[in-house]
Amino acid sequence: MKAVVFDNSGTLIRRYKALKDLRNGLICDYANSIQIVDHDINRALVVLQTDPSKCIIKANPNQTIHDFLMKNDVQFDISYSDVDIAKSDLLKSIENDDSTMKDLQDTYNAVIDKKYNVHICSGSGFIVNMKTGRVEFTITAGGKIFKEVPDVISELKNRNIQIFVASGDRKGSLEQLAEYIHIPKENVFDTASSRQKKEIIDSLKKRYRVMMVGNSSNDILALKEADIGVLTLQQGDETPDKVFNAADHVINNISEILNVDF
């Protein structure tokens, strides 16, 4: 039996995002959050497990992010970092940080103002520097399903290939994705770190021959662990050499995986 494991953002959906650099207050829509984390070994990408349109945007803009997390018992996960970080340690590190909910709300509003008409709201989060205890960037992201994806999923099902998703995105957004592409929610692994993606592949290999399809540095371990690792460039982001080196195949469009023999 065979299985294909997809990353989500940049792989199944074209990602749209707004990222605010709290060091200078500038907001951009082109920076890659994974590469920003890669730039400093002390950084970690945090994903908030809440719908920004129902929670974050309604928060007191002057409340610090730390207080918002603590007082509302907001669930979060560390989706990408160079080393394992305990959630308690992360909360401790930012308890004196002065970044506010307005910094998160600014990124949400920037995405809305662009009128991307996203299918999936990936959610909001931030990048923290564990050495300085400072939130350096806030992020909100969403995306549109690449137009080829429904046909690709349908054809894989016709071939009796099992379909899974392993992504660093929040649970709610991936449940939306599962409904959209008609796969069981239990086949979706949310807020998966690089190491967790590798472990997911390793577990699936006990039952299937596995193809991993991803597009970024947080997919490297999974690409290497899979029987076949496929790097997709459809998002159009600059891709580090180390991601190319981890892949067995490189494609420019998600539909091309149907031509990869595994």
Your description of this structure?
- This protein is of the alpha/beta class.
- The chain has two domains: 2-13 and 145-259, Rossmann fold; 15-143.
- Helices cover 29% and strands 27% of the residues.
- It has helices at 33-38, 65-71, 87-93, 101-113, 149-158, 171-181, 194-204, 220-225, 241-246, and strands at 2-6, 13-21, 26-28, 43-48, 76-81, 120-129, 134-145, 162-166, 188-189, 209-214, 228-232, 249-251.
- The strands form two sheets. Strands 9-8-1-10-11-12 form a six-stranded parallel beta sheet, with helices on both faces.
- Helix 9 (241-246) links the parallel strand 11 (228-232) and strand 12.
- The longest helix has 13 residues, at 101-113.
- It is globular, with a radius of gyration of 18 Å.
- 45% of the residues are buried.
Name the poorly predicted regions. none
Q: Given the C-alpha coordinates, what overall shape results?
A: globular
Output the radius of gyration: 18 Å
Enumerate how many helices there are, as a single number: 9
Mean pLDDT: 93
Could you state the order of secondary-structure elements as H and E? EEEHEHEHHEEHEHEHEHEHE
For the record, give the distance between the C-alpha atoms at the N and C termini, rounded to a whole number.
Answer: 11 Å
Count of β-strands? 12
